[in-house]
Specification:
This protein is mostly helical. The chain has one domain: Globin-like. It contains 6 helices and no strands. The chain is globular and about 55 Å long. The mean pLDDT is 85.
Length: 150
């Protein structure tokens, strides 16, 4: 049963990846902490989020998630760096992406019983760990890219 409830969060993320991505992009383009994204083309934002939301299950259930997290978030860092997005904005965008998963699930009221809430907390905790490792990978890759540039 525990796995089934974890799947619920992952499932809703996959099934509604396009909507989640659009919501994230709109929030990102309006947030005062992410001004470099304000002028970004909608497709640019949506493409990044869709790739993550659609592949979250693969990372989430991987036996070696750190490798996959590092690969995905290093690509994210390279694209953001090449687009001229400052590191602090790229990181804040990831925080917003992570938050969007929970906000969407909460709005949909898919976790109603106390047991479902408990399981949802476990799922979001694991998702937070994925993003924490991802943020580390982004910072590391940005530093490597800056060093290569000089």
């Amino acid at each position: 049963m525990y796995q089934a409830l974890e799947d619920k969060l992952i499932e809703i993320t996959e099934r509604h990846a396009a909507e989640l991505s659009e919501m994230w992009c709109n929030a990102l383009r309006m947030n005062p902490r992410t001004p470099s994204y304000h002028a970004q083309v909608q497709d640019y934002c949506v493409t990044h989020a869709m790739e993550f939301y659609k592949n979250l299950r693969k990372i989430y259930y991987s036996e070696k998630p750190y490798t996959e997290v590092t690969e995905f978030f290093s690509r994210y860092a390279e694209l953001a760096f090449q687009s001229g997005i400052p590191l602090q904005e790229a990181i804040y965008a990831l925080i917003m992406m992570r938050r969007q998963i929970w906000l969407y699930a909460d709005i949909q009221a898919i976790f109603v019983t106390p047991m479902e809430h408990h399981q949802a907390v476990a799922s979001i905790t694991k998702t937070i760990r994925i993003f924490d490792h991802g943020i580390y990978a982004v910072i590391k890759r940005y530093e490597e890219l800056k060093a290569e540039k000089t």
